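Continuing the batch. This is chain 6 of the set; chains 1 through 5 are on the previous pages. Same settings as before, nothing changed between runs. Recording input and output for traceability.
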Amino acid sequence: MATVRPKTRIQQKNTDAILKAALVVFSDNGFRGATLDQIAGEAGLSKPNLLYYFPSKEAIHVALLSGLLDTWLDPLRDLDPNGDPVEEIMGYVLRKLDMARDYPRESRLFANEIVQGAPRMLDTIQGDLKTLVDEKAAVIAQWVRNGHLAPVDPYHLIFSIWATTQHYADFDVQVRGILRPKGDSHFEQARAHLDLMFRRLLTVV
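Output for chain 6:
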């Protein structure tokens, strides 16, 4: 088996530059509208140099989405079966909202992939993502059975968390157009609203 050599500092720097540039180009133009020339130009590299690191536009897109999904799922992985159920879920909700604020381009990139039918990520969604969601849904279901949470469907709870937090990234123009916030002040209002809404849903009465 061939040994995979670690990337040099320059190789890692160029790889990071390509992925950062690709995020901008794909977010602005979609997968179909983006070109290798645009990505290379944004990264400050020649097209032949870019192709040394990635053989195709699709390879860049897959690498970008894979890294994004891994980061996006970290808060769900951190859901602790031994923690306080309501606080664990509320921590997840608020971390997801923070990510919508801090990584809006990444959220929109992933949303665009899903809207297109996930042609480059379907195997991951049906594989690793499903496995993780199944695992955490089982934890939530056990909390419900133990009487620590009000009766909720674990899967639809997770979907609701995704929908209500990522909305602030994926529909940022609409939210800002309606609220006209100063900077990101609306995220504090969203935190208060989501905290109230989900706590009422989850708390046993």
